[in-house]
Amino acid sequence: INSDNFSLLKHLPPYVFSVVNEIKYKARRSGEDIIDFGMGNPDQPTPKHIVEKLLESSLQGKNHRYSVSAGLPKLRLAISNWYKRNYDVDLDPDEEVNVTIGSKEGVSHLMLSMLSPGDVVLVPDPCYPIHGYSVLIARGEVRGFNSTENSSLLENIKKGLETNPKPKALIISFPSNPTTQTVDLDFFYEVADLAKKYSVIVIHDFAYADLCFDGYKAPSFLQVPIAKELGVESFSLSKSYNMPGWRVGFCCGNKDLLAALARIKSYLDYGLFTPIQVAAIKALDEGDEFVNEIKETYEARRNVLVDGLNSVGWSTEMPKATMFVWSKIPDSLINLGSLELSKRLLTEAKVTVSPGIGFGEYGEGYVRFSLIENEHRTRQALRNIKKFITSQ
């Protein structure tokens, strides 16, 4: 068997982050203490009341059978109630809500359901990698638009929509991973106008909806009155509720797109383990207090990291949202490039970051810090980074 003959794998680019991860794992195996700001993997436990609900439900034998691919009706109702409570958006839980096995699975299966080979999807650059990879996996073609500056976002999207062949869909994500960019509701109205004019489907990844700071509240694309005519929005419980390994997400909006997604999923999975869905209901219905605590943890870590970077001469803006800090490489280090700098920080400062180039062409010149280390270890990392900078 020769995997070189597998055509899909030929079209998937090398996963840049694996280069840094390999060095990190090797260092840890040799006993080195690596302070890890790399992968966005929450380090805190899932709130106790959610875990207790999982345990209670898992003891019931009836819950060990196959579940429902589109999600339990009560979970879909909890999702629609979550939208109504937080965004005053009305959703039909039967036709406008679909439970997914995390947001990555949801976006990937949606692409499989709606794309034909060669269909073009307009994707931010830089972006969360699955936004582009899901298109390639579905045998579509990715067209990137420069998403680094808010002032030119709409113009760059418009230019992308006007090129041939015409894109079938547009993927956006705010608050953004990796860039931490935020937008207001007016932006979504503008996107909706463009989508209607150019007959393009909108997929909005809303994974960081809850992790907003300094009084900012992220708007939902579905707050635009015509949004459900134009596309869907996805969300994940991974970050807001410290539930990354549970793989609970959902996709809401246009009923025709969701019917297509549900049909594909019916061939590929039987849905999440029922006790996980029952616990997810508990999270959505009664988890607001814990979401606020989780948000405050990330805000405190953000403050320590960004203030510390600025104090050592690494100029960095304070993000309004997400669990990341997107930082432009200092002029004194820019010649290294983001991948080489990430490798050097790991080997010389014992600090892991994600190279910007791993998120797209326009990510070069930046690195991403994930706020997954406590404040004490963050301060230690800053001391190490300061030594690294002064030694160059």
Q: How would you portray this structure in words?
A:
The protein is an alpha/beta fold and 392 residues long. Helices cover 46% and strands 14% of the residues. The chain has 15 helices and twelve strands. Strands 2-8-7-6-5-3-4 form a seven-stranded mixed sheet, sandwiched between helices. It is globular.
Report the radius of gyration as a whole number of Å. 21 Å
Oligomer description: single chain
Order of the strands making up the biggest sheet: 2-8-7-6-5-3-4
Percent in strands: 5-15%
Q: How many H/I helical runs?
A: 15
Share of helical residues:
40-55%
Tell me the major beta sheet: 7 strands, mixed
- Distance linking N and C termini: 47 Å
List the helices and strands and how they pair.
Blueprint (H helix, E strand, L loop, with lengths): L6 H5 L5 H13 L5 E2 L11 H11 L14 H15 L9 E4 L1 H13 L5 E6 L3 H9 L3 E6 L6 H10 L6 E5 L11 H14 L2 E5 L21 H4 E6 H4 L8 E5 L1 H14 L5 H13 L1 H24 L12 E5 L8 H13 L1 E2 L1 E2 L10 E5 L4 H17 L1
Parallel strand pairs: 1-10, 3-4, 3-5, 5-6, 6-7
Antiparallel strand pairs: 2-8, 7-8, 9-12, 11-12
Helix pairs in contact: 2-14, 3-12, 4-12, 5-6, 5-11, 7-8, 13-15
Gist?
The protein is an alpha/beta fold and 392 residues long. Helix content is 46%, strand content 14%.
List keywords for this structure.
392 residues, 15 helices, seven-stranded mixed sheet, alpha/beta, three-stranded antiparallel sheet
